[in-house]
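Narrative summary of target 7.
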Amino acid sequence: MRQKKIKNVDEKIVSFSGPLIDDPAAYKERWREAFGRARANSALWLDADSAQRPDMDSTRRAPANSALSDACARAPLYLEIGCGKGRFIKESALKNPLSLFLGFEGQKSVLYRALQRAYVNSDVSVRELNEVALALAGSGGGGCASRGGHDARADDIDRGSRAVAGPPDNLLFCAGYISDMRDYFADGELDGVFLNFSDPWPKVRQSKRRLTSPGYLNGYLAALAAGGFIRFKTDSNDFFEYSRACVDAAGGFEITALTDDLHVSEYAASNETTEYEMRFLNLNKKIHYLEARKRPRLREVNLREVLEEAPLAGRCEAGRRQAAPKRRVPVAGRKR
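Modeled conformation, tokenized:
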């Protein structure tokens, strides 16, 4: 869906530079350091050793010379490619405070809305989001302008008794598209990848751009730790069937959840909705859902052993298929 362009969007994004990473490629293999800077003084993270999530990898260690708390260094790191206006990733971050969430979005006008939403509650209007942006821009990113002895920014932001405390400290955003996972993530650095209503790119010549194409799936396999997952949602039946076939063919994944109607399935209770998803539900459209996890170890196939164990009826001498005898086809007019 074409998004409305926002005037001077680059300047406006600067107002929300707190949770925004300018050079994501520079944080390859040290994404937890980027999160650690924002929560070095957070009691939640300093005391989190006693309340670790069961899905944390207890063997993960902090990078050398890192001042991160041990709990933050072992926290699971999740990526959403194409985070849209940020509803899904912000709500996920709020509900999972001991996990780290990273959102990539290529359209700056859409990213701007996601950054706005990160600062306020999810039920505010677009007008109130704009008021937040104006208030932050007016403060110059530092102190707040005063109005009649009051804090002007606080007056503008705290409309309708809605408290605005800033973005969750376990949520970061990046502006840009991911064409190769290896440009941004080291092997085994991620614990999960969310693909929510990605562009299906229906034309054949555009198939490599699909986020579930073989090229991208190989990148996920490299970036995911053992047991890490990809979770994929779409309203397109054709895109869903294509994605399922590609995941099956990738070999390194095991499909652990699959449904053609997410909201009447057993996975509905744990589902976090997106902006697009709410729109499709209002139109009574079914949502397709797939979860696939990286196998602990890719199975190595020895071709010689496979041939030796094959039934004799299916084998040929020297491992070569015997050619079928040529059949003579009579030609009209030719003497026999």
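DSSP finds twelve helices and ten strands in the chain.
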